[in-house]
Design a protein that fits this description.
Strand order of the largest sheet: 7-8-12-11
Helix content: 40-55%
Distance between the termini: 52 Å
Shape: globular
Largest sheet: 4 strands, mixed
Number of helices: 10
Order of helices and strands: EHHEHEEEHHEEEHHEEEHHHE
Radius of gyration: 21 Å
Strand content: 15-25%
Number of strands: 12
Amino acid sequence: MDHAADGTPDPEDLARWALHCYCPNAIRTPHQVVRDGNNGQVLYAARHGALTKHLNISDTQLSELLEFRLLERDGEKVRTAFPVLGSREITSLRTALRRLATPLVDAVEKPVQDIAVELQRRGIDHSLYAMVFGYALDLLLWHQLRAGDAVPDTELTAERRWWNGAFWALYPPRLGGSGTNFYRFAADLTLVTVWSDSTLNRLHTMASTPGLAEAMQDQDVTSVTDSQGHRWRVRFDDGRPAIPLVGMNDVLDALAAAVARPVSVFLLSHDIEEAHRAIASDDRGVATVIVAHELIWEITEQLIARGVCTRAPQGEDLTGLLFLLANRSS
């Protein structure tokens, strides 16, 4: 059994691990399936392969785990079908990435500073974290990696009708990690929220506010109030937007692409092999997704430590965790 740095053993239940999915087109992600009943314990026990008769599992459970591609079957034997990175593997990976990220931080520091200057010019410097992590590293980077055929296909198929892409479990979780959620407002506009565990529910409540899409596009509306009574500023009193709009091929897009580009080049190069060796996956694309997630968190933390990027907004005003994405066909 592996142990975390504080001596705590890895939980023998994957429901207690950090679960991540790169599956933007999913109808239903695997997270809740892992957490149902004793599925997390079954999946932990089967990570190196196990006979079904040795697992405390019903036929119904087995069918669901196979349907969600969380288990793969070979006769009477099953094996957990996604990477499980315990303390030993994740410590090795994070140690390697801490060193490998430093020259990348050097490379992106100038465009990050330029983003800060541009946001300050627009009066929305509260959006720096969202633009650097959420837009450059957790959106444009994935576009660049998909263009290089470096990550798995995420389109749903008849065989993969719930989710497609990559799913993995890791322990211990990375403290302060962020992610992005997308809320399609219209054919040409998407609201993006940059969430953490502490802000996820509030951001989802805000994004679900009736009439929000119309308010965002109404020049006379300065704020909206969600169902929990929280007020969200969408525009300043002089009519200027309080939330960045990206995807318009303007200076913000160019600067964000300049942040993402050296990171994607690195992930597509042989320099990443050391990090790949820490991941037990025969699927190169899945391994790249896992490395990329850990790498963008590491880069962001190093930028914050240098004072180049702000931390994610917390507290009452979370407007800085939002941005609007124009869906352009060309």
